[in-house]
Amino acid sequence: MSSPVPAAAPAAAPSAAILQAKLWYWQRISAMVLALCVLVHIGGMIYAVRGGLTAAEILGRTRGSFVFAAFYGIFVLACAVHVPIGFARICEEWFGLTGVKALLVGKLLGLVILVMGLRAVYGVVA
Amino acid sequence: MSAELLEVKVWRGKEAGQFVEYQVPRLESQTVLDVVTHIQRHLDPSLSYRFACRVGMCGSCAMTVNGVARWTCRTHVAKVAQGSEGNALEIAPLSNLPVIKDLATDMREFFDKWAQAKGQFKGTKTRHDEFEVVAPESPKRAAANAGIECIGCGVCYASCDVVTWRPAFLGPAALNRAWTLANDVRDNAQKERLQAVAGDAGCHVCHTQGSCSERCPKQIEPTAGIAGLKRLAARAAVRGELE
Fold first, then answer.
1. For A8, which of B109, B162, B195 is closest by C-beta distance?
2. CB contact under 8 A, A20 and B199
3. Which fold has domain A22-125?
4. Of B3, B12, B111, B124, which residue is least crowded by CB atoms under 10 Å?
């Protein structure tokens, strides 16, 4: 049966309200960027694989390409903003972490995504 | 009608308890509330449950019927009965609320959250002032109208997974109420209300799963109202009005 419900918390402190409102719009904005990036990415892949796919062909297209670096750099940045916020929520609701700890875990994951993502972009562009 | 008798399992006890089986004669146009009433009047007078109007206005008879929160006075047995003979019902108290006894839940927490979400109208005019003219077709009035028919039955609250995961979450009904007031041009407690409903116990923890909108017997969409509150909170945060 349903578990007993503890006494309701008082209304959110203004700082918590501001933090959550900001997290929400950052996640919203990053989601919009990601939606666009995914479409371009899939379109680019379909275009790139017409007539076969080789590492040499890909690197030939990406090496020294400022457009490629800028596009995937933004893609990685959007991921690094979007994922930590959602992951912090999962940590709070599934693993019982408190808000600050959950956000810290999220930020660490965001940092990993940022470093690995930018390293991958550098790897195919440089 | 396939079977003459309904096989009804009813939750008996408090948080700890068990389902007890009853056999109830099946009737034409029978509601789930009729079934519960039959059990109490003819089979076991110690059964506790709550109801008042019997016509879908008061919001007091909501229960969990075959795993789904419903208003029992307007739920026909024929539409929800399960089993091979279509005659099985399992009736339990609403989820996410403490059980007082049998099918009656403690609704205090649910309604306290309406107060926490600043669900009271705060106007500035007195009886000596002229009426405020609000155009019915204005977008704000239309948004308020979409949510004001709530009867406070608690079906949305019991259906919300986020309430289960985060007991401090204000829940769909309280936030729907706040949204209707956020669209009331006569109300002047907008800032306080937005501060109360934003944050990690308020609109921002809603995952937009939509169970509340799916289950609301009045076809209200709390999910849409909560999304509206998130937009208002974001705008206010950017303008520094949430401080």
1. B109
2. yes
3. 3 helical TM bundles of succinate and fumarate reductases (1.20.1300)
4. B124
Q: What is the mean pLDDT of residues B10-18?
A: 96
Q: Note the Cα B200 to chain centre separation in Å.
A: 21
Mutation site, B200, B206, B231, interface A, largest A CB count within 10 A: B200
CATH number at residue B98: 3.10.20.30
**ipTM of this complex prediction, to 2 decimal places:** 0.76
Does residue B235 register a pLDDT over 60? yes
Q: How confident is the model at residue A80 (pLDDT cuts 50, 70, 90)?
A: very high
pLDDT at A7: 47
**How many Cβ contacts (< 8 angstroms) between chains A and B?**
107
Looking at the complex, does the CB of residue A90 fall below 8 Å from at least one CB of chain B? no
Check A89 against B205: CB less than 8 A apart: yes
Q: Is residue B243 part of a domain?
A: no
pLDDT at B3: 74
Q: Which of B83, B105, B127 is the last residue of a domain?
A: B105
Domain region containing B23:
5-105
The stretch A114-126 carries a mean pLDDT of: 95
Strands of chain A, DSSP E: none
Which structure tokens are listed for B98? 């403490």
Residue indicated by tokens 């206005």? B57
Which residues, 6 or more positions from B63, have their beta carbon under 8 angstroms from its beta carbon?
Answer: B32, B36, B49, B69, B70, B72, B91, B92, B93, B94, B103
Those residues with Cβ within 8 angstroms of residue A67's Cβ, 6 or more apart along the chain or in another chain: none
Are the C-beta atoms of residues B22 and B39 closer than 8 Å to each other? yes
Query: pLDDT tens, B161-210?
Result: 999 999 999 999 999 999 999 999 999 999 999 999 998 899 999 999 99
Number of domains in chain B: 2
Chain-chain contact of B201 with A11 (C-beta, under 8 angstroms): yes
The answer to whether A20 and A12 are in contact (CB under 8 A) is yes
Across the interface, whether the CB atoms of B200 and A99 are under 8 A apart is answered yes
